[in-house]
Amino acid sequence: MGRAAALAVIALGVGAAPAAASPVELFGFGSRHGAHAGAGVADVDDMAATWMNPAGLAAGKKTLTTGMLGWVSNLRVGERRRPMAQTGGGLFGVTLPAPLGGPLAGRLGLGLGMFVLPTSIVRITARLPDEPFFPYYQGRAERLVLVPGVGVRVTDAIDVGVAANFLAGLGGGIEAGEGATRALEARVDEVVPAVARLVAGVRWRVRPDLAIAAVYRQRFEVPFSTVARTEVAGEPINLDLTASGQFSPHTAVLGATWKPPGGALHLDLAYARWSSYPGPFVKVGSELPLVGPLAAELPAVPWRDTFAVRLGGDVALGERLLGRAGYGFETSPVPAAQPGVTNLLDGPRHTVGLGVAIAWPAALAGKPVTLALHAQAQLVGGRTLTKAILPAGAAGGTFDGLRDEVTDDPQDPATQGAQISNPGYPRLDSGGQVFSGGATLEVGL
């Protein structure tokens, strides 16, 4: 009984796939940047600067921002639609100048940006290695975002800034064994350590109408580690689970903004080092009686670094009305060829955004108020995964190909040929769209 229970836990643990990244990376931090398809690191001075480019906080704006962001998935696997577990949340933020005098007066600005889920802080979803899913989307928008930052005006033309992408991890252990009454008793000791990663940026105002910027976002992940030490009927059963959830790769962005009369044009180029991704699977180590050490073989997925280009623009449509639009293209980190066990779905992404902003210069006790609305569509390129069957005795890991799961028995016709249970065999089509939209209300302080 103890051995069967351990094997059941292992089967569940091997399939646990942590979520990744955050909704602001997917859909933009507020309506201004959602409409721009994520462009604008050289021209950001609101709460979104905490994540997009903290150097923008040096502008020292005094604003309070609230809003909402929602999305719906039309991603498909074959003919079946794949929804996302969460469908939206709330946006909150504040920017203000630091209350300093002397030579630092007016040179330092502070900011805080937040995205809050309606019912949870973070979600980790359990999946099997062969389950078809979209790792870039499914789970990626399911965590609290909390980013405090500071920006400094070094000279009249150069600003720098830093921020912290903040969350928490989980580590500890579980001990279980037979108590005095022979019933199974357990002791749990888990720790939730803080996780903070750097976001740093610089902006150079080359001319009054031209600015360029560079941003670096440090690799972010939430560690998960649990050690289970159990004893059943006098037999020790040990299980170690480790995972890397909420992953975002090292990312570098170069951007430029040009502001001709009556409008603005934003261009961003980005590189993300996805090749360092440890993968969306839980690593399991175990110790079973009579069997000894037992560890499942995880697929060795060759994740690919990605490149992105984003172009956004603003145009004045009236004295208080501003129109916005944007387009972005990003390559996929998921390998297009997956002949083995994995069914990780994705494709190159085209993003189109549209939005408007309405300003009231003195609407609230003489303070300015701006309402921004936006809609965005992300088009995920279609792909077809084709599986390969490795011959008996051939070299190769679980990512390289599938193997016949039942030995051929001349006396049993049902065992003849390849017996494959992988849901992607012999081929699997995918693609679709993700639609998002929202509103933000910015009030001057």
Structure characterization notes:
A 14-stranded antiparallel beta barrel has the order 2-5-6-8-9-12-13-16-17-20-21-22-23-24. With 445 residues, the chain is mainly β. Helices cover 6% and strands 51% of the residues. The protein has a single domain (2-387, 422-444), classed as Porin (Beta Barrel), CATH 2.40.160. The termini are far apart.
CA radius of gyration is 25 Å
Secondary-structure element string: HEHHHEEEEEEEEEEEEEEEEEEEEEEE
Count, helices: 4
Kindly state the percentage of residues in helix: under 10%
Number of E-state strands? 24
Indicate the structural class.
mainly beta
Shape: elongated
Known CATH architecture: Beta Barrel
In CATH, the homologous superfamily goes by the name Outer membrane protein transport protein (OMPP1/FadL/TodX)
Overall pLDDT confidence: 84
Give the terminus-to-terminus CA distance. Answer: 65 Å
The stretches of 5 or more residues where confidence is low (pLDDT under 50) are 1-20, 168-182
- Order of strands side by side in the largest beta sheet? 2-5-6-8-9-12-13-16-17-20-21-22-23-24
Largest sheet: 14 strands, antiparallel, barrel
Q: What's the CATH class label?
A: Mainly Beta
CATH topology call = Porin
Total domains: 1
Question: How large is the share of residues in beta strands?
Answer: over 45%
